[in-house]
Amino acid sequence: MRNMVKVGIDVMGFYTPHYYLDLKVLAKARGIDVNKFHTGLGQKKMAVIPPDEDVVTMAADAGFRVLQHVDPEEIDLLLFATESAIDQSKAAGIFVHRLLKLPARCRVVELKQACYSATAGLQMALPMLRQNQGKKILLIASDVARYGLNTTGESSQGGGAVAMVLSQNPRILAIEPESGFYTEDVMDFWRPNYREEAIVDGKYSCELYLRCVQKTWEQYTALSGRTLSQHARFCYHVPVPRLVEKAHQCLIKFNGLPKLSAEELENQLGSSLQYGRIIGNCYAAALYLSLISLLENTAGSLSQQRIGFYSYGSGCVAEFFSGVVQENYQTMLETKYHQAMLENREPLSEKEYEAFYNFSYPVDGSAVVLSKHHKGRYRLAAIEEHKRIYEMI
Ligand code: HMG
Fold this sequence. Notes:
There is one protein chain. Helix content is 34%, strand content 26%. By secondary structure, the protein is α+β, with helices and mostly antiparallel strands. The chain is globular. The chain binds 3-hydroxy-3-methylglutaryl-coenzyme A (HMG). 3-hydroxy-3-methylglutaryl-coenzyme A binds next to helix 2, helix 6 and strand 12.
């Protein structure tokens, strides 16, 4: 990156809904030993999305916060990464564009490739930023993970949004240009247009996730010449935290290093998984939530340290890339705000969770006014004539 202008993440933040299900409650309801969730999968809680929230309101909440650090008038591109689209035609980002009062001279587009799409957005944005001094791009990943009640994927649901302002001379993370990427046409996880829940071949999806770590790492390390030890920390896409730990052990093994002890594993990954363990999978946002978790929960400074990133989206596309944490990045974090958001969440009973889960929107054009559950800044107020009506609270 010697002669190249620095580009990357200037500001970032996340939003997750006010409600969660403690996996102890789920274990009891489904007659499953809770240790399967806590130890076997490394998951404690999962976010539950009430009927008056969706990918638009979550994205707007996350976006509003990051725009406090930049002039919204400077944003001329909004990239919206999601696999929980609310429309086959109109980009969800256009609703967000209005809610956030972005300038009319702003391009808006939605990106899809399972959990990989935010990384696609990031990588597509970087060359534009290198060429245009002063350009700022808002990248928002927002998703709801749904597998269905009583399925093996049920405990790995969740949801949330991460918003990032990307720019030259970023204040949080400069992304390095080398990256390894890989595509293969596989059916490990998919959601046909007519379904609300994903279909997943769980074990196969985990095998692919692990296989692609090696493929993308090999390319990345060949291109960059960097060794594992030149990375201070790692952030992975987090479908279930235990899989991330397995992937990291695989990476250690490919590099001919001895298996990490539980303590070493915790030291290298623990802080990056802290938020994921209590939010669950948020698909396209999950890798970037892991970065926020790492930056906000690591004791000591990560300034000038290199982080390795592994992005995986079923179907599948995977990528390994890296970034260097910038000096004074701590001044850009919203740690207190995020921690208060998580601490103030409300637990749901099994019945309340199922009621939220089973709520269905009209599909025949009839009108519905949605009860007010949402505690954030924006909510889905009603649906009328097939149109979603959003409001700012
Ligand atoms: P499962 O079949 O319910 O779990 O599915 P299991 O039976 O394999 O058990 C999981 C672990 O818990 C095992 O450990 C058990 O031994 C252990 P392992 O052998 O793997 O080390 N276990 C226990 N441990 C302690 N005490 C106990 C106990 N019982 C069992 N009593 C699976 C798990 C993740 C497959 C499932 O939750 C699922 O299908 N989730 C959804 C798919 C998924 O998350 N896949 C991950 C990779 S694909 C991906 O990342 C993309 C994705 O994000 C979507 C996108 O790209 O858009 C999903």
